[in-house]
């Protein structure tokens, strides 16, 4: 999945509507079968984040399930759910997205290079020469694909449609790497973080936000929660929760294998 990549004090005065009763619900849009992000069983890190946020608000979580993949992809998911007022918030969207109103970021992560440690590849950036001599795997329709294309490496690369096709897990990219079908994988770290725990022989290196020639490229992204444009009241409440409970949210992410990134 591509980044769809993160302090203000609690409002203490005024309207009772700022303090919903425990019976009210945080209405969340989520994919019912796209681990490690979310599923109906509540096993994804987005599920766990939603529960923590709802608890902080004194609410329960109420889901609207819809696929974020397939025809139209993530934009269609937003149009059919959040924008259609079938729910009020999504838990994971790039900060500053033009599609929705985003909260303050609650984490920052990055695209990464993943390869077998024993191969000792000298990879420091997308411009490392070794990348033109080995087979590169990447997720389609992401910054990684754009980087591969502009460097003329597409013919010798393997594209994965994980974020576009139903039923595919990001873990299949790591499986291809283990089987030798690709030599290095370039992908969004949160997509594979949980699966990496079973592969201590793999090296994971952050893709830096730089380019030797041409305009700069971005591979690290601050990630937020998203609400409908104009829903400033809910955004404010969520911003307050993030500010007060950042340590708890960070703990959930790290326990879920998400590597947090702090840009220089």
Q: Please tally the helical runs, counting DSSP H or I stretches of 4 or more residues.
A: 6
Silhouette = elongated
Distance between the termini: 25 Å
Helicity level? 25-40%
- Supply Rg: 19 Å
- Structural class by SSE content: alpha/beta
The average pLDDT score comes to 89
What is the secondary structure topology, with strand pairs?
Elements: E1 25-30, E2 33-34, E3 38-39, H1 45-57, E4 60-65, H2 73-80, E5 90-94, E6 101-102, E7 107-116, E8 136-139, H3 143-150, E9 157-160, H4 171-178, E10 184-188, H5 189-196, E11 202-206, E12 220-227, H6 232-255
Parallel strand pairs: 1-4, 8-9, 8-10
Antiparallel strand pairs: 2-3, 5-12, 6-12, 7-10, 7-11, 7-12
Verbal overview:
The protein has 264 residues and is of the alpha/beta class. 26% of the residues lie in helices and 22% in strands. It contains six helices and twelve strands. The strands form three sheets. Strands 5, 6, 7, 8, 9, 10, 11 and 12 form an eight-stranded mixed β-sheet that branches. A two-stranded parallel sheet has the order 1-4. The protein has a two-stranded antiparallel ribbon with strand order 2-3. Strand 2 and strand 3 form a beta hairpin. Helix 1 packs across helix 6 (232-255). It is elongated. The two termini are 25 Å apart. The model is unreliable at 4-22 (pLDDT under 50).
